[in-house]
Amino acid sequence: MAHLNIAKLKAACIETAPYSYTIVPGFLSPESVAAINATYPKIEKGGSYPIESLESSMTIKEVIDELDGPEFEHVIAERFGVEIAGRPKMYSLRGYTRAKDGQIHTDSKDKIITVLLYLNQDWKQPSGRLRILRNGTSVDDYVAEVPPDNGTLLVFKRSETSWHGHHPFDGPRRSLQMNWMTSEGSKGFHAVRHKISAAVKKVLATS
């Protein structure tokens, strides 16, 4: 693969407490991260953005194609013990985090696996670092902290205890999220919601 370091994912430890997750630093090489940022879409407002509007020349599309392939899916299924073959997938991009983002949550029940790929270079801010939490009440009661930079990969299995969040940050923060969903219907709901969100933001930006 040109971008994904599958060997690192295969070798990474799958933690089981407080829920199943793995963190893989350098899942993307510095060269891949630089190429992604050189052609990343201009996202200056908060919220998730669908991938349908990406141009073919953007390197992030190559990364998405590799994530969408059978090898990555097979490794995730095997390592997390989940049946995801044939399940619908949802992708979304982020380029800007608002102060209200990062509140503690578990992800919605229609998600099976969440994949987060961090695209920033050398994150120096103390805030905006996702934390794997022991509970749904304190962002400071955590077992691991994920710097959102340099091609770091975070994968976790969604559950009623998959609490995560981060201290508030307002500013540019690039990431790609993908999810295996329970059904095409739920994927469609999210896709429509994201498209509406992006359309509204575009209108506001030009008004």
- Walk across the major sheet and give the strand order: 1-6-3-8-2
Radius of gyration: 16 Å
Please count the helical segments: 5
Task: Identify the quaternary structure here.
Answer: single chain
The H-level CATH homologous superfamily, spelled out, is q2cbj1_9rhob like domain
Q: Can you tell me the CATH topology?
A: Jelly Rolls
Determine the mean pLDDT.
Answer: 90
Poorly predicted regions are 189-207
Inertia-based shape: globular
Could you describe the 3D structure shown?
- With 207 residues, the chain is of the alpha+beta class.
- It contains 5 helices and 8 strands.
- Strand 4 (130-133) and strand 5 (142-146) form a beta hairpin.
- The longest helix has 23 residues, at 184-206.
- The protein is globular and about 40 Å long.
- Residues 189-207 have low confidence and may be disordered.
Itemize the secondary structure elements and their pairings.
Blueprint: H1 6-11, E1 21-24, H2 30-38, H3 59-67, H4 70-80, E2 89-97, E3 111-118, E4 130-133, E5 142-146, E6 153-157, E7 164-165, E8 171-181, H5 184-206
Antiparallel strand pairs: 1-6, 2-8, 3-6, 3-8, 4-5, 4-7
